[in-house]
Amino acid sequence: MKSMTSVITKSALVLAACASMNAFAGTSSGKAPAPAPEPESGALFDTLGATLEVGYDTRYYWRGLYRADNTVWAGLSLSVPLTEQLSLGFGAVYTDSVDGSQIGSQSFDYSELDLSTGLTYDAGFAKIGLVYNRYTYFDTFTGLSDGVSRLEGTEGGITGANEVGLTLATSVGPVNFTAGYWYNFTIGGSYAQVGAELPIEITSWLSIVPAVQLGYGFDYFTAPQLGAASSGLTHVIPSISAPIKLTKTATLTPYIAYNISLDSRHNTFGAATGIPVNGNAQDNEIFGGVKLSVNF
Length: 296
Prior knowledge:
The strands form two sheets. Strands 1-2-3-6-7-8-9-10-12-13-15-16 form a twelve-stranded antiparallel β-barrel. It is built from two helices and 16 strands. It is 10% helix and 52% strand.
């Protein structure tokens, strides 16, 4: 009986040793065990193709034109693929000045809602877009308390505008280029812009992006009857931003920029109003801000 027990015990030890050796050989070989398949999400779409953004700017310059101080804004955009090359886009951005200010004897508050829709075609060498924008200026385009009465008959007194535009985005090596042309039906003027940026990766989560932007206006938001140039170069804005990838879907981007007013954006005051008819109280100015973007 004692001999039988010894045989059974030794057999069990041998089997255990063999099992251990096989397990060790499996983990130490170059071939890892196949991972278990991930369960299906059961969702209709992997992602929505949407981006939610919120931001703050010490100065709000729009196409080289000063709009307000200390603004906060929130925007939502959605891209819907129609084919492999063609997508349909929707967007909305609301901007509001944090605190009103005084310009002479007038109070100044500014709020704006921008709605857009458009088509983007990926031609391989570039992305070409056709876009429609609707702007609503809740405090008039000037933001002044009596902007409508004092600027009646000028572009500064409007409360909304509609435009259509063509855009192009492409890359040459590490440099990204953009260009666009927009026609504003409300004021009967148009605007063209070119830009370039060079993303420089510092780490896997941090980049530095120097950029520059140049614009030209054709009878675009000026008041020639008050002494402003009707057409010409609007501005050049060199800037530098630092996108910080917080998560796979969230990015925080602080930036600093320098607005340089050109021919049609110089600090020109209208005799009838006593305010800058081109909107820029300063020819050259440093400003900055930060935004948080989340993709889902």
